[in-house]
Amino acid sequence: MNYETVPCVLCNTYNFKPLFSKPFENGEEFTLVRCRHCGLEFVNPRPHYNQMSKYYKDYFNQRTDRGYNNYFSETMHREVLRLLTLNLKDLQFYDFEASIQGEKFALDIGCAAGYFVDYLTRRGWHAEGIDIARDCIDHARNNLKLNAYCGDFLSFQFNKQYHCITLWATIEHLHHPDKFIEKIHSLLHDEGMLYLSTCRSSAFSARLLYGKNWRYYNFPHHLYFFSYRTLAKLLQLKGFAVTRFVTYGSGIGKPKTLMRKLADTLAKRLYSGDMMLIAARKEK
Ligand SMILES: [Zn+2]
């Protein structure tokens, strides 16, 4: 059996309502369900974790509507950095960074080719990254000379605590977002910050407009679709308090057109973006 049916990670119950099904590119159908208690949306049933590699073949280097077109190019590196620095500003990261005395340690989980690890290293951080994608980690280690590890975060042994842990567009891919947040809590300094971004499943965003064709409904690459409420709930259950919440992105109009720029600006002002950024610290 290649699939597993899982309970809601927030309620630990199996009481959910199927919303719709959508095929992967090989025709395999996946169903999105909504928990009847808390409203969390997730793909269920889903492939077992050890089956996932077949869905990620060529994810970072072949043009598909789901993956990336040559993620290792200079153009992509620049684009990733442009977005990251905007996100960091919105999250008030630079104020936090300035407040740390002495050496600073950071960990980027789901670091892909290591662009954020590289960025922090250049700013004087001791930065490390981890990802399960071998080709990405090879790029990070060999070309960018970074401290990047290929492996599963949950089974990896870390030997220090971090001031900053990040999950950029990663939590939606995970089989066990709850266990990740729990482990992050144990690795974070008491005064440290967790920053994350993920697609935002909210009625007041482009998701409503696009329905099952919403740009982030890539099953089974994306397994969890959090709203602000369900994500804040998960963080709170694991001992975190949210300190900042920002949304961005509209998905309306073609990239780089005036229409897209206007729609993105409006989405951000009205807190109706279909991506969200969260900053959280340990609950005192
Ligand atoms: Zn639930």
Please give a structural write-up:
There is one protein chain. The chain has 284 residues and is of the alpha/beta class. The protein has one domain: Vaccinia Virus protein VP39 (Rossmann fold), CATH 3.40.50.150. It contains 8 helices and 13 strands. A 7-stranded mixed β-sheet has the order 8-7-6-9-10-13-12, with helices on both faces. The chain has a 4-stranded antiparallel β-sheet with strand order 2-3-4-11, with no helix packed on it. A hairpin with a 5-residue loop joins strand 2 and strand 3. The N and C termini lie far apart (44 Å). The model has no long low-confidence stretch (mean pLDDT 90). It binds zinc ion. The site of zinc ion has 7 residues, from loops.
What would the CATH topology be? Rossmann fold
| Secondary structure: number of strands | 13
Q: How many helices does DSSP assign?
A: 8
Which CATH first-tier class would you pick?
Alpha Beta
